[in-house]
Amino acid sequence: MVSELIPPEIIPLVWFSCIAVTVYVFFRVFSSTLKEKFKQTNLSRKKAEGSVHTDSQIDDLVNNAPRILNEINKTIAEQKSAGVSDEQMQGIYNKKKMLELVTNNAEVINIIGKPIIKKLLGLVKNI
Predict the structure, then answer these.
(1) What is the pTM of this model?
(2) Which structural domain, as residue segments, surrounds residue 75?
(3) Helix (H, G, I), strand (E, B) or coil at 88
(4) Which helix (H) or strand (E) is 51 found in, with range?
């Protein structure tokens, strides 16, 4: 009876339109849910990458501190030979003190300092 009302050439178009409307409605309804899920996935990935990046920066500082300290010592020697006063090189001396501290306490920084720095950065990121 229904097939008498609808010509047989149009039946595939009716099926296609029904399926297309169903798919459209499904994605329209769940698109906000899918977008939110993608955002959460991307945020968690960025947070994980950020903590790895911080760890590598700390490792690089601890590992490269002796080399940087040698470069600072060379710079200080060059500046002294050029006649620069100690007051003008106060910033360089402060960097030298910090790098000496890092060089002398590398084991302590690796054991205690990294977890503390991670927690502090986590608190700062949450704020």
Answers:
(1) 0.50
(2) 2-126
(3) coil
(4) helix 11-81
